[in-house]
Amino acid sequence: MLRPSRPEDMEEIVEIWLLASLQAHDFVDASCWWQAQEDLRTRYLDHARIWVFEECGDLLGFMALVDNFLAALFVRPDRQGRGVGHALLQEAKRQGASLHARVYVENDQAVRFYRRHGFVIEAEESDPLTGHPQYRMCCTPA
C-alpha cells in the first residue's frame, strides 16, 4: 500500500536509504553513506514530500519529491524486483507535470529502471558529495 509518510517512519526510511545505497552504490566508499545519514534527515527529507510503500506493517521502500525533483527512490534490497519501485515512481509521476532525477552513471540497474519508465538523459555531471559522475535525467508526460 502506498501512503504519505508519517514522522514515526523516519528511522525506517533512513535505514532503507542506507541499506539500498550501500548495495546499489558499492563503487562509493561506504563511509560516505554512513556519514551522510544526518544530512539526509535534516537537509533533504525535512523539505520533501515523502511516500512509502508499506506491506503488513513493514516499509519496503520510499520516494521523496522536492517540487518536481525526485530526490530519492529506494527499495529495501531484499524486496527489490517486486514492483515496489515501479509503484513509487508511478506515484511520483502523478504528482507533477515533469520529473527530474540524478542517477549515478555506474548504477546500471537504476539507469535501466529510469529509462524503462520514460526518463531520458539530459546531461552528465559530477556529484559534489562523492565525485562520481551522475546523469541528470528527465521524464515528461506524453
Q: Can you give a write-up of this model?
A:
The chain has 142 residues and is of the alpha+beta class. It contains 4 helices and 7 strands, in the order βααβββαβαββ. The strands form 2 sheets. Strands 1-2-3-4 form a 4-stranded antiparallel beta sheet, sandwiched between helices. Strands 5-7-6 form a 3-stranded antiparallel beta sheet, with helices on one face.
Task: Give a quick summary of the entry.
By secondary structure, this protein is α+β, with helices and mostly antiparallel strands.
Tell me about the biggest sheet? Answer: 4 strands, antiparallel
Mean pLDDT: 91
The quaternary organization reads as single chain
Count of individual beta strands: 7
SSE ordering: EHHEEEHEHEE
**Residue fraction in strands:** 25-35%
Structural class: alpha+beta
Residue stretches low in confidence (pLDDT < 50, at least 5 long) are none
Shape: globular
* Helical coverage, percent range: 25-40%
**N/C terminus separation:** 26 Å
CA radius of gyration is: 14 Å
How many individual helices?
4
In which order are the strands of the major sheet placed?
1-2-3-4
Could you give the topology of this structure?
Blueprint: E1 2-4, H1 10-24, H2 30-44, E2 49-55, E3 58-66, E4 69-75, H3 84-94, E5 99-104, H4 108-116, E6 120-126, E7 133-139
Antiparallel strand pairs: 1-2, 2-3, 3-4, 5-7, 6-7
Helix pairs in contact: 1-2
Label this structure with key terms:
142 residues; alpha+beta; four-stranded antiparallel beta sheet; 4 helices; globular
